[in-house]
Amino acid sequence: MLDCYGITDADIVASALRERPTLRSLSFSPIFHSQEYGILITNHFIHSLVSLKGLTCLELSYWRISDQLLSSIAKENPPLRRLDLAYFTGYSYIGVVSLLSKCQRIQHLVLKRADFLKDRHVALLTSFLGDLVSINLSECSMLTESALFALNEKCPLLNEIVMACANIAYERVGNCVVNPQIKCLRLANNYVLQDTKIIMFASNFPNLQLLDLSSCINISEEGICQVLRRFSKIRHLNLAQCSIMKLRGMNFEVLKLEVLNLSYTRVDDEALYKICIVVMK
């Protein structure tokens, strides 16, 4: 139930949930994406939600909740595999850790714009995320590459990391371990990300297939070419709004690219000609 104008009362939703105790997946966001107009979480709603003993997927974007709701869910320990708390307000790290410490089978986790999250929080949460396959920590402004490295080292099944609008490369930290499991890395809008860091990522994620560097304005053309020389398996590359013109040094004939996004760049005719020649072959 996404963006439903007619649903304004959480107790109505709670009553509906009571009628379907075997419900396994619930996705619900209010039409008014703001604290002022959002649906108020009531005790009736909390009790109905935790009564869903077989819940494997819970997506409640744009709600204003409390740590009480997350703790109440944790007490029932549902078999959650997917948890999406994007754009939630009103809760804290205490609520997140209480839930994840009990529900340790989560494979897909979205904590988008969890402004309170710090690198040390993510490092602690990794001990509960052994089954994690994908994570979205976009718009968590206090996170740096330290959080990315912790996820990489402590979550053996992880293959997708999304950390757009973070502070990747804001701190200077040591190299992360080589992880052939990581296939997708989305780092859009990391304005402080520089060549040295993405070159290091290329060395540590040898099987990367999707790389999103859109709007990473401090990455140079030379740095991108160096990365592509090392990413032998990359298929999807997003360089939208980057400082790209000539793409000199990029040998398109050895790449396995299927998607190349150069939107809003300054790429010129010469570079496009090189790409077209390879495609036509």
Automatic annotation (TrEMBL):
Q: What protein is this chain from?
A: Putative leucine-rich repeat domain, L domain-containing protein
Record's signal peptide? none
| InterPro entries linked to this entry | F-box_LRR-repeat (IPR050648), Leu-rich_rpt_Cys-con_subtyp (IPR006553), LRR_dom_sf (IPR032675)
Do you know which PANTHER family this protein is assigned to? MITOCHONDRIAL ATP SYNTHASE COUPLING FACTOR B, PROTEIN, PUTATIVE-RELATED
Stored Gene3D superfamilies = Ribonuclease Inhibitor
